[in-house]
């Protein structure tokens, strides 16, 4: 019997197989003979899940005994990726699971195919949340990730005539065996209505609509440790009384269920925009739903230990993943003042000490602001609280900067014109004790521009925590061949839990045999991807589509390469496969035009036998975590070409460098830190830096002048405008010639020259492979474990709690 009074689940192959069979018989109600692949998959999941659940039980016991300070990560998005392979690795059941699958007559690949990826996020922010909760568990930090269990995740991307067409992502169509529904922990959430004051002057919120939040959680095991944390996801349900039986028996079937449908709509679908706020009412309802359920659950958990409310910040730190959950600040104030009866000042101190805010963007259009009128209707009490917070903030501003009314107007939580809107970033800064950017340049620019007034008034609040990625998912699992080579070179696999150990690979940088193996594995990963000649340079640009990320710059260069090959068919052109992948927000038409043009250029090149030996453009649809795990290990060149000052950090850049891709990039986001750590000689740098870009824009930027003085650029744009690529893309060329907000044309020549340097470097495969190895060897800093230990020591001030095996 182990520490939790349970007979430990066996770790032998026979015991695992026994458990698998009993799950097949008793939990799937079928037999080996009549089992479907889905039956086998679900039984396998339950067998692995049980072993993690046992560790979860011991984790809970250890956490309860330790009564630690908890980290609560509030995020509207989690891109968790497939769970099976990860949970098999983290539960150490690799061999016995494979043997048991064989006994059942199914293959690991077949099981992985049935393992659905929960697409509960858009891109960088959502995947970062997943990497960070993985690292928190690995570092034995007691933590819970709170989010929304959307019925429909990020849309599935298909191409029709090269154009993106979105399909709904009904990810739980087959159910989700990895989750534990916990309806008994449901919470009640209010919307609309009005507020009243009772005789004691206490405010009461009389809601107009009541919705239930039902949680289900997924296990988040740590790597190389016993800790198993959870991600708790909320789903909206109608209250008991939401089904109107009278109307139903009167035959008004739709009306009878409309209240329940309205409620369930709140967690129906993820908003697919990743950098432009659309100000939809349902999105604000989603955000409040998340924070109200989560804060009530956090307070319920706090009460389990029964300390005074003044202890709350000492026992809970809540990290806000961007402004999307920033309503948690006025919500905690409402709970402390209206429900717990605390005074405002005391409640405000507790609130500020509890919250911390991470900003993930610099784009003005991505900074959320909500109409005051909508707040008035949907969250009347919160608007009152926000006004009070604002009153006190502006009093402090006035006292610190007497007479500086412009500063008061700039810093106010309320934008007054053209429409009265609540500035969520200002609320997030005012209501937290720590504000961080996600890369050094980003944090610097936040303090110098977007949040300058606040950084001036509260310099101590502002810091940087550079992003990181999970080395388990994006190297150990995604690139097993390279992982094996690294483990054999370093003597053990401790690097997966301590990534700085990769530096040990430097001693093989001049070892021809090792470099040969390194190169062969990259080639094999390209063959595994199967999207082009494995001997060609695999040039990869994978990320969401946005004009600031400049997929259009990459495309102009592809067209230039195409022209160069056409103009000089016999020339010694370096064969390249250019891979684009990524989704565009459905309403983002400029991005969708670029996607369509890329597919048209790809088709034109594919149809030209004079060019295909040297150039191939591929665009696999529906880029997600799983496809990323296949593409990233196969990349030779990593495209990180955003306009300097626009990409907050990037995390794809880290995953690609970790897998031995060389980066061609600008001095933007974490590219700067990657270049500093892997060595400038192992990085292809080009383009305007942030000050130069700002200067060029300020001094009047005329994109057409670059077109006129650069013949290759002119030829590329003329080709598009002449309809050379299936007649599509004219709007892309016109917007570049007339507007070009992200200085694409200004950086074109430098980029083209840098790509020539890439071609020259590729010619020396030994030198290239050495640089590739050094990128991996020096990427240790970009582990999410380092990121989390930075958060833990500089913002959360939490200690790990060890979980024993028995
Ligand atoms: C309101 C709509 C909306 C939705 C999502 C977002 C996210 C903040 C966008 C996002 O994913 N940002 C990315 O976050 C990554 C993790 O920190 C960074 O690495 C990327 O540079 C940043 O673009 C902004 C606005």
From TrEMBL:
Reactions accelerated catalytically: [(1->4)-alpha-D-glucosyl](n) + phosphate = [(1->4)-alpha-D-glucosyl](n-1) + alpha-D-glucose 1-phosphate
Pfam families: Phosphorylase
EC number(s) reported in the record: 2.4.1.1
Residues spanning the signal sequence: none
Primary role: Allosteric enzyme that catalyzes the rate-limiting step in glycogen catabolism, the phosphorolytic cleavage of glycogen to produce glucose-1-phosphate, and plays a central role in maintaining cellular and organismal glucose homeostasis.
Family: Belongs to the glycogen phosphorylase family.
Protein name: Alpha-1,4 glucan phosphorylase
Gene source species: Paractinoplanes rhizophilus
Lineage, broadest ranks: Bacteria, Bacillati, Actinomycetota, Actinomycetes, Micromonosporales
């Amino acid at each position: 019997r182990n520490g939790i009074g349970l007979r430990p689940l066996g770790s032998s192959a026979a015991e695992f197989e026994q458990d698998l069979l009993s799950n097949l018989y008793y939990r799937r109600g079928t037999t080996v003979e009549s089992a479907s692949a889905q039956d086998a998959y679900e039984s396998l999941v339950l067998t692995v899940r049980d072993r993690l659940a046992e560790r979860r039980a011991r984790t809970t016991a250890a956490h309860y005994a330790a009564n630690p300070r908890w980290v609560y990560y509030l995020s509207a998005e989690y891109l968790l990726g497939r769970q099976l392979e990860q949970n098999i690795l983290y539960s150490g059941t690799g061999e016995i699971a494979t043997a048991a699958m064989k006994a059942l007559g199914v293959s690991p690949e077949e099981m992985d195919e049935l393992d659905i990826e929960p697409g509960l996020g858009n891109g960088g922010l959502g995947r970062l949340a997943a990497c960070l909760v993985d690292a928190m568990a690995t570092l034995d930090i007691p933590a819970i990730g709170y989010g929304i269990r959307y019925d429909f995740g990020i849309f599935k991307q298909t191409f029709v005539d090269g154009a993106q067409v979105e399909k709904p992502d009904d990810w739980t169509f087959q159910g989700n065996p990895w989750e534990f529904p916990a309806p008994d922990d449901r919470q009640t959430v209010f919307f609309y209505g009005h507020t009243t004051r009772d005789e004691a002057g206490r405010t009461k919120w009389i809601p107009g609509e009541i919705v239930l939040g039902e949680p289900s959680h997924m296990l988040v095991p740590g790597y190389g440790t016993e800790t198993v944390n959870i991600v708790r996801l909320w789903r909206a349900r109608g209250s008991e009384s939401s089904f109107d039986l009278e109307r139903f028996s009167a035959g008004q079937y739709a009306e009878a269920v409309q209240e329940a449908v309205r409620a369930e709509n709140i967690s129906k679908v993820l908003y697919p925009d990743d950098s432009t706020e659309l100000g939809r009412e349902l999105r604000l309802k989603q955000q409040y739903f998340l924070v109200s359920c989560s804060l009530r659950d956090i307070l319920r958990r706090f009460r389990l230990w029964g300390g005074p409310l003044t202890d709350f910040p000492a026992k809970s730190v809540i990290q806000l993943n961007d402004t999307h959950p920033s309503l948690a600040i006025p919500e905690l104030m409402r709970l402390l003042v209206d429900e717990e009866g605390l005074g405002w000042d005391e409640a405000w101190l507790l609130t500020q000490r509890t919250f911390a805010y991470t900003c993930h963007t610099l784009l003005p259009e991505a900074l959320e602001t909500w109409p005051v009128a909508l707040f008035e209707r949907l969250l009347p009490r919160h608007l009152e609280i926000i006004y009070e917070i604002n009153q006190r903030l502006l009093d402090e501003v006035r006292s610190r900067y007497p007479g500086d009314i412009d500063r008061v107007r700039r810093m106010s939580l309320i934008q007054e014109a053209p429409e009265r809107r609540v500035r969520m970033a200002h609320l997030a800064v005012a209501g937290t004790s720590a504000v961080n950017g996600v890369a050094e340049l980003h944090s610097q620019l936040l303090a110098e521009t977007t949040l300058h007034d606040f950084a001036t008034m509260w310099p101590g609040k502002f810091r940087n925590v550079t992003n990181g990625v999970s080395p388990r998912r994006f190297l150990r699992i995604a690139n097993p061949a390279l992982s094996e080579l690294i483990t054999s070179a370093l003597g053990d696999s401790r690097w997966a839990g301590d990534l700085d150990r990769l530096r040990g690979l430097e001693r093989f940088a001049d070892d021809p045999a090792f470099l040969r193996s390194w190169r062969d594995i990259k080639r094999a990963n390209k063959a595994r991807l199967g999207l082009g000649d494995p001997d060609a340079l695999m040039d990869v640009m994978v990320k969401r589509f946005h004009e600031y990320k400049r997929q259009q710059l990459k495309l102009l260069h592809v067209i230039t390469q195409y022209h160069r090959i056409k103009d000089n068919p016999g020339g010694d052109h370096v064969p390249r496969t250019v891979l684009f992948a990524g989704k565009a927000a459905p309403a983002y038409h400029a991005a969708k035009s670029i996607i369509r043009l890329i597919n048209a250029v790809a088709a034109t090149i594919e149809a030209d036998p004079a060019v295909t030996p040297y150039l191939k453009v591929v665009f696999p649809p529906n880029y997600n975590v799983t496809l990323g795990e296949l593409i990233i290990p196969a990349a030779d060149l990593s495209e990180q070409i955003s306009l300097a000052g626009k990409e907050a950090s990037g995390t794809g850049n880290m995953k690609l460098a970790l897998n031995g891709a060389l980066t061609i990039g600008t001095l933007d986001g974490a590219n700067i830190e990657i270049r500093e750590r892997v060595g400038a000689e192992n990085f292809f740098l080009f383009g305007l830096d942030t000050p130069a870009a700002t200067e060029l824009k300020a001094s009047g930027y005329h994109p057409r002048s670059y077109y006129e003085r650069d013949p290759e650029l002119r030829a590329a744009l003329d080709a598009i405008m002449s309809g050379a690529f299936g007649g599509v893309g004219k709007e892309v060329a016109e917007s570049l010639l007339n507007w070009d907000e992200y200085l694409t044309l200004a950086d074109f020549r430098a980029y083209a020259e840098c790509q020539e340097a890439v071609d020259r470097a590729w010619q020396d495969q030994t030198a290239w492979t050495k640089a590739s190895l050094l990128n991996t060897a020096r990427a240790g800093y970009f582990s999410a474990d380092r990121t989390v230990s930075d958060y833990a020591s500089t913002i959360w001030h939490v200690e790990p709690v060890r979980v024993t095996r028995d």
